[in-house]
Amino acid sequence: MEEKKEASIPKTPLVPGTDTAAHPLVELTHVEKHFGALHVLKDINLTVNKGEVLVVVGPSGSGKSTMCRTINRLETIDSGDIRIDGKTLPQEGRELANLRAEVGMVFQSFNLFANKTILENVTLAPIKVRHMDKTDAERLAMDLLARVGVDSQAAKMPSQLSGGQQQRVAIARALAMKPKVMLFDEPTSALDPEMVNEVLDVMVELAHEGMTMICVTHEMGFARKAADRIVFMADGRILEQSTPDEFFEHPKTERAKDFLSKILTH
Ligand SMILES: Nc1ncnc2c1ncn2[C@@H]1O[C@H](COP(=O)(O)OP(=O)(O)OP(=O)(O)O)[C@@H](O)[C@H]1O
Ligand SMILES: [Mg+2]
């Protein structure tokens, strides 16, 4: 008689979070946010699983940046719940700093520290927040700078680098904290056109390596190539969530059709 395999007993993964089952890393539940009288986030419900690449699109003022900023508590929320890897975002203090360190963020403007070298920009947080030894932090930083193709610039000051190079440093700096999820808020929109691709290439590579990513971007080529899911926001609400093919070929709402007709004709 054939021996029965105990396939139904799930194995404990060696590294937490490496199991293949869907593993929610970011969960927003009924999130509401006002700026004074302005209702900017309306009943936002969103789950991002480990390894998923989300691209958030929508008209200007629809709440995309605000939603990203609430995920690492650069903005507070009025009500609802935000969890990172199962833990509710704390209000403040060390616990918040720890949880925030798990979320890497890259903005439109590069915000590197102008008075520090490229290497120092990348080693600063691992040394200060993660208490990493300086030599280890420098080794990690050089490795990350090499991965984004700017290791030869390590001794320079930010102002000596091009916008595209600075943005790649900003990505390396965020990665140095070993975040569980990376947020990108229009990381290429302040760049000269010829530098957009060098940054998008790094993002595509990160996506292929399995990084969990939430990207606000107008780069529809990137969205088609790298996104697992497109989230369409308008007036503070998520109106659609679908695969890139579904979204671009068969948008469901009039708002999305209108948005697409505007961005795809230019
Ligand atoms: N700190 C703030 N105080 C008051 N109102 C704000 C603040 N930040 C954003 N808003 C308003 O909230 C709304 C949503 O802004 P948000 O920046 O999230 O939109 P967005 O979708 O990222 O737009 P864009 O595509 O232009 O970047 C807008 O009406 C904006 O003017
Ligand atoms: Mg924005």
Instruction: Give the N-terminus to C-terminus distance in angstroms.
Output: 67 Å
| Strand order in space, largest sheet | 6-7-8-3-9-10
Q: Would you identify the regions where 5 or more consecutive residues have pLDDT less than 50?
A: 1-18
> Would you count the extended β strands for me?
10
Radius of gyration: 20 Å
Order of helices and strands, N to C? EEEHEEHEHHHEHEHEEHH
If helices are DSSP runs of H or I spanning 4 or more residues, what is the number of helices? 9
CATH topology type:
Rossmann fold
Strand content: 15-25%
Q: Which hetero compounds are present in the coordinates?
A: adenosine-5'-triphosphate, magnesium ion
Biggest β-sheet description: 6 strands, mixed
General shape: globular
Query: Mean of the pLDDT scores?
Result: 90
Task: Name the CATH superfamily classification.
Answer: P-loop containing nucleotide triphosphate hydrolases
Q: Give the CATH architecture.
A: 3-Layer(aba) Sandwich
The helical percent reads 25-40%
CATH class, named Alpha Beta
Supply the helix-strand structural class.
Answer: alpha/beta
Taken together, the total number of domains comes to 1
Pfam families: ABC_tran (PF00005)
Main location: membrane
Keywords: Amino-acid transport, ATP-binding, Cell membrane, Membrane, Nucleotide-binding, Transport
Organism: Bifidobacterium leontopitheci
